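User: My collaborator sent over this chain with a note saying "see what the structure looks like." That's all I know about it. Can you take a look?
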Amino acid sequence: MIAILFMIIGGVLVVISIIGFMMYLFQPMREMYQVVIKREDDYSHYISPRGMAYLQEKTKSYLIGLAVMFAIGSVLFLSGLYMKFGSRGFSMLFSSVVEESTQYRASDADITDKIDDDGDYKADNGKVYYDYLIIKGNDIYEREQLIGRIEDFESYVPEMDKSREIFVADDYASSSTFHEVIRLLEENGFSYEKD
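Assistant: Without extra context I'll predict from the sequence alone. Here is the result:
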């Protein structure tokens, strides 16, 4: 919500500053700052050297104000974009929307070769495991379904069935995540095998 708000406010500021600059370009300088003329001789104030210096000073401050408004608007807009799309990558902005998949995608062909058609894991030792964990980077999967990161796994461990042996497969796992999973399994009394 904050990201969208930043993008809206930033976009409005950028548009206003661009419109203000276009007004400056297409209007004579004296018309831009001229107050309502009540008497005919008021006009002489704006064409006198002192009046022109005053107008130039006002024009300079006006342009600086527009530049600051444009800069703040750009920063807000880009911050909003980063907050909204930065975590998933900016390529999401320029491609079709893809649903976040919770299905496991192996980065190593050996891992997928070991998962049979029923979704069971056949280890190198020949045993077939119905219950298995795959750790890929910092993500933890149970039977190809994403559990999440280690914090999510900690709350998930008590729900797991302790009666079956669990196989822990390493698919380019982060070392700390792999060791933390093993520690949690041991602490909760699970029997397990690992790669």
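A starting point for your reply to your collaborator: The chain has a mean pLDDT of 75.
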